[in-house]
Amino acid sequence: MSKLLDYLNALDTNAVLIQAHKSDPLKAATEFGLSEKEQTALFGEGRQGVAAFLDIPFRDFDAIDTIETPFSLDSETACLKHKDEEALAV
Fold first, then answer.
1. Which of 70, 63, 78 is nearest to 22 (CA)?
2. d(CA 90, CA 67)
3. Are 54 and 45 in contact (CB under 8 A)?
4. Which SS3 state, helix, strand or coil, does residue 4 take?
5. DSSP assignment of 15-55
6. pLDDT in tens, 37-90
7. What global pTM score does this model have?
8. What does each C-alpha distance from 57 to 6, 7, 44, 64, 71 come to in angstroms?
């Protein structure tokens, strides 16, 4: 199963992860172990995209409030920006 669902569930219960996600969602998702496809679904496709990625009917998956991000970058740009920042940190 996808780690994306585990990540979303953890965002409901793990205060440290919640704060990390609020501070830097891409870094938090990467450190949690989400793949690029999972991150694209999470940050670039909205709630319906996440439901489709997880193969869950959207009507049963309407409680996703935690995936809003504090920036308006498209997912590809955001992922590239995050990778550039990691490369600079090395």
1. 70
2. 28
3. no
4. helix
5. HHHHHHHHH-HHHHHHHHT--HHHHHHHHHSHHHHHHHHTT
6. 999 999 888 888 888 898 888 776 655 554 454 444 454 455 545 555 555 554
7. 0.66
8. 17, 18, 19, 13, 27
The alpha carbon of 76 is separated from its chain's Cα centroid by a whole number of angstroms, namely 13
Q: Count the residues in the chain.
A: 90
Taking Cα atoms as reference points, which of 43, 44, 49, 1 lies closest to residue 25? 43
CA distance 57 to 70: 26
CA dihedral of residues 1, 29, 75, 56 (deg, nearest 10)? 30
